[in-house]
Specification:
The complex is a heterodimer of chains A (601) and B (177).
Chain A (H helix, E strand, L loop, with lengths): L3 E6 L11 H9 L4 E7 L5 H14 L3 E6 L2 H14 L7 E5 L1 H5 L6 H21 L6 E4 L4 E4 L3 H12 L4 E4 L14 E2 L4 E2 H14 L3 E4 L2 E9 L2 E8 L13 H5 L22 E7 L1 E4 L3 E3 L16 E3 H10 L13 E8 L15 H15 L4 E6 L9 H10 L4 E4 L4 E5 L2 E8 L4 E7 L1 E6 L1 E3 L3 H8 L26 E3 L9 H19 L3 E4 L4 E3 L9 H5 L5 E3 L6 E3 L9 H5 L5 E3 L4 H8 L4
Parallel strand pairs in A: 1-2, 1-3, 3-4, 6-7, 6-14, 7-10, 14-25, 16-23, 17-18, 17-23, 18-19
Antiparallel strand pairs in A: 5-26, 8-9, 11-12, 12-13, 15-24, 20-21, 21-22, 27-30, 28-29
Chain B lengths: L4 H12 L11 H5 L10 H10 L2 H5 L3 H4 L5 H5 L6 H14 L7 H17 L4 H12 L6 H9 L13 H10 L3
Helix pairs in contact in B: 1-7, 8-9, 8-11
Classes of the chains: A alpha/beta (601), B mainly alpha (177).
Chain lengths: 601, 177
């Protein structure tokens, strides 16, 4: 018979203000199997934890119930305290009498006290049948996959490779560089994007630890964190771009090459035949970048039909090529209008979010235009100017003061062609006047949207996206570079619109997360997951379909289902699905649940 | 929008010496202005209309004429823009364009004030106000107040002349008046 100790926390007055903790202790002492019960002001404090350790030593307890706040708060704290005193951490459980009782029943102290006693009794029953579990450890494949060869992907790949680990960099296009390849001079100091990019590309191409696969896409992902299996389809290799096969260089760098299924002799760079390679991968970084909302979506701004209404990237091409000419007749435009928030901050019709990069690049483009056409007039229609960054606000002010760019606060209502010019109807809310500009050229700062195919890729990777198709971060504040899937990290505009400095920062963060994973000899995993009783399993496969984490597969030859322990999250869907009761959760078995019901019936 | 938007704002900036392009449109000038309540375009809107090149609107606006030149706007402005000199330029431009001042009485007071200085080298309230009343065709307003001030000796009957009146008159000649 297990000797169980009960520790009731007052949590100041959070619990003791409603629940009669002394009575709870007196009542629960009488419950079968309870060898010790005590209450304390703050059980999570050092003296509180010392009380638990002392009681374990004095009474030889081998099961602990802490009646306190939510297990999300302090389960780890109390399991650590119990382990320090020699009790298996999985024999320590929390009875939540704060969030679920004292906080919600403040007006009914009598009922709350009774509910607390019953709740603690159910957890006593659980602990009585808990098994002493040991966490699993899993090996880690120390090779990273980076999806996307833009500035985000290249930065991540270089950081990981510099640390000595092999990286596979997959790029859908024929060349590395991503959207940055299309840019001209960058804000804040008009650095030429191609120059910055060439240095990065050269570093990536020459790095012995980086394998670059261009014209390639991830087609299939299997496995789990530390042990992914990735299938990559490469349409063809462009001359000059290497496909490096791991071998001598990587072995020299001190990393043991993982078992490799890539066959060097099957590579035929000349033939444009699709080829599929399989890699064993430990961690994945998604850096698929962005696209611009097509102009055709913006009916009120010409729907993409007028040739002299272009988007920000088209203007970047003009700047990069040096000459600013109207697409229609090749004339130098003398009146140019930039329309900010074209499709952004428009919840009714388009995207509700702020695309973040437009305020800055529009200021830069208007300045670059004035540098090339000093007698031209630049107008910028905006709703708000968001220039948050070091030197950003000053940069926008320079556009207004030094370059005489006329900023008009108001959204453009309509853009249409008339007599060879583009008419812009807008308003200047600062003077309250309607404004009409006969423009030669209109540049739409169209909304930033996820890269085409991002949703499909997310499905293949089993990573969640938000409603717009941007990859979801694990926590908006504290885990912004991790996806919700273990071992898959995010970098750059794939997660949300970002400019280059922010992208590089996040890419470095993603690399640090990957290196943190690779620094571990092996990974530790919670043992409170599902298992299959081979005697009872009939091999019907219902659990395979029920599992949302693809953690359940059929045995290669035996007619039974098996658990992929690294993927199982312990949700219990398989337990419900199993008609034979062969599927069960560790420390939450069906029998345990039924006994837990006894005290409350 | 006219093609002269930039040139008009540049003329005003050059003549007033105020850096209007740095304006944030935070409206602090309007919020602090003691006479904004009576203006058809508030101080910040005047700046806006200058940048938009709305010459005609501005030269017919009463805002420049109502500005009392207290400089509260400039004292509070985050970008150190003083609007009184800007308002002066707008008044000058309106007169140069041959437009009737939007506030005739204000203009009449300015005229009377300048005439008084030209005549005496400093203001003589009694003759200045008499001239104003004739110019503004407003003979009876505040008459009782004026009488009480005279009885208390606050408004002197006789004007005082300054020592070197010629130097003041030279200033008037220089601006062609």
């Amino acid at each position: 018979m297990r000797k169980i100790g009960i520790f009731v926390c007052h949590c100041g007055l959070n619990i003791a203000g409603t629940i009669d903790v002394q009575r709870v202790v007196e009542e629960i002492k009488k419950y079968p199997g309870v060898a010790f019960a005590a209450d304390y002001k703050y059980m999570c404090s050092d003296p509180g934890q010392a009380l638990i350790r002392q009681a374990i030593a004095d009474y030889g307890l081998d099961g602990i119930v802490v009646a306190a706040c939510s297990p999300a708060m302090h389960e780890v704290t109390f399991r650590k305290a119990a382990r320090a005193a020699g009790v298996n951490p999985y024999l320590t459980e929390i009875a939540n009498i704060r969030e679920q009782i004292s906080w919600v029943h403040q007006t009914q102290p009598e009922e709350a006290t009774r509910k607390a006693i019953e709740t603690i009794a159910t957890i006593v029953e659980k602990v009585r049948y808990d098994e002493a579990l040991v966490p699993f450890s899993l090996p880690v494949v120390k090779r990273a996959l980076v999806i996307g060869g833009g500035i985000a992907g290249m930065t991540t790949a270089l950081h990981i490779a510099d640390a000595g680990y092999p990286v596979v960099l997959v790029e859908r296009e024929a060349q590395l560089g991503g959207k940055m390849r299309q840019l001209s001079g960058l804000y804040l100091n008009f650095d030429a994007a191609p120059d910055l990019l060439e240095t990065k590309i050269a570093a990536v191409m020459q790095h012995p630890n980086i394998q670059v696969l261009t014209n390639a896409e991830v087609v299939e992902l299997g496995g789990y964190v530390g042990n992914f299996t990735v299938k990559i389809s490469s349409r063809f290799q462009v001359p000059g771009y290497k496909l490096q096969v791991p071998g001598s260089e990587i072995a020299q760098s001190g990393i043991n090459p993982q078992p490799e299924t890539l066959q060097p002799e099957t590579l035929q760079p000349e033939t444009p035949q699709p080829e599929t390679f399989t890699f064993d991968i430990g961690a994945i970084v998604v850096a698929t970048g962005f696209d611009l909302l097509p102009k055709s979506e913006l009916g009120e701004y010409g729907g993409g039909r007028p040739p002299d209404v272009i988007d920000g990237l088209q203007f970047e091409r003009m700047l990069a090529e040096g000459e600013i000419r109207r697409p229609s007749d090749g004339a130098v435009p003398k009146e140019v209008v930039w329309v900010q928030c074209a499709g952004s901050r428009d919840p009714e019709l388009h995207m509700p979010y702020c695309s973040k990069i437009c305020c800055m690049y529009v200021a830069k483009q208007a300045m670059a235009y004035k540098q090339r056409v000093p007698d031209g007039q630049a107008y910028v229609f905006y709703i708000d100017i968001r220039s948050q960054g070091k030197g950003y606000e000053e940069f926008v002010q320079r556009a207004m003061t030094e370059y005489d760019v006329l900023y008009l606060r108001g959204k453009v209502a309509r853009v249409f062609e008339e007599d060879g010019r583009v008419v812009v109807y807008g308003v200047d809310t600062l003077s309250g006047k309607a404004v009409e500009v006969q423009a030669d050229l209109v540049v739409l700062a169209t909304a930033v949207v996820p890269s085409a195919g991002a949703r499909d890729l997310a499905q293949r990777l089993r990573v969640s996206t938000d409603e717009y198709g941007f990859f979801s971060e694990a926590h908006p504040k504290l885990r912004p570079v991790e996806s919700l899937t273990a071992g898959i990290f995010l970098a750059g505009a794939a997660q949300f619109p970002k400019d280059i400095p922010e992208t590089v920062a996040q890419a470095s963060g993603a690399a640090a997360k990957v290196l943190g994973l690779f620094a571990q000899r092996e990974m530790v995993q919670e043992p409170t997951i599902a298992f299959v009783d081979e005697e009872l399993c009939a091999g019907c496969g219902l659990c395979v379909a029920a599992c949302p984490y693809e953690a359940r597969v059929m045995h290669p030859w035996k007619p039974i289902a098996v658990v992929q322990t690294a993927l199982c999250q312990g949700c219990g869907a398989c337990v419900v699905a199993c008609p034979n009761k062969a599927s069960s959760l560790r420390n939450l078995s069906t029998e345990q649940l039924l006994t837990m019901m006894e005290p409350v019936l | 929008m006219t093609e002269t938007a930039t040139s008009f704002s540049e003329i005003i900036q050059a003549r007033s010496g105020e850096p209007l392009h740095t304006c944030y449109f935070c409206q602090k000038c309007t919020a602090g202005c003691p006479v904004a309540y009576a203006m058809d375009y508030k101080p910040a809107q005047v700046v806006r209309l200058i940048l938009l090149g709305r010459r005609d609107t501005l030269l017919r606006s009463n805002a420049p004429w109502l500005c009392v030149g207290c400089d509260t706007c400039g004292a509070r402005c985050p970008n150190d823009i003083y609007l009184a000199p800007v308002m002066d330029v707008l008044k000058e431009m309106a007169l140069e364009a041959g437009l009737a001042p939007a506030e005739k009485k204000v203009y009449a007071l300015h005229q009377s004030f300048l005439d008084s200085i030209k005549l005496w080298g400093r203001t003589h309230e009694l003759s200045m106000l008499m001239e104003y009343k004739l110019r503004a065709v407003d003979l009876f307003t505040d008459l009782d107040l004026g009488l009480r001030l005279m009885l208390k000796g606050k408004i002197s009957m006789l004007p005082e002349r300054i020592k070197d009146l010629e130097r003041v008159r030279a200033l008037y000649r220089r601006v062609g008046r």
